[in-house]
Amino acid sequence: MPQVIARLRDFATALSRGVTLPDGRSAFLVCVHGRITAFVNRCPHQRVPLNVPEGEFLDAGGELIQCGMHGALFLPETGECVFGPCLGRYLEPLAISIDAEGNVILAVE
Ligand code: FES
Prior knowledge:
mainly beta, Rieske Iron-sulfur Protein, 4-stranded antiparallel β-sheet, 3-stranded antiparallel β-sheet, about 0% helix, globular, binds FE2/S2 (inorganic) cluster
């Protein structure tokens, strides 16, 4: 059954958002240049949540995903680390779609 994990309107006031998946995992969505992507909230460096200690998922420019622990930066399109201790590794992406009502839906795996 499709699972709504966010709504488009959520991104009118914030460009990133943490969510809990139906299976209990922590995840997050970012909206960069109008495109929404989603990933499991676990840094490939030390397997910790990215949004510690500040609670943010994006860097100050709002263009790259950032891990708050050691500052790794990731492309929002693919989750590839482009700077930091896990260079070349990837965040775990989540397949999502957006329906006509603006619901962000987690694809069934
Ligand atoms: S735990 Fe994310 S950069 Fe080290």
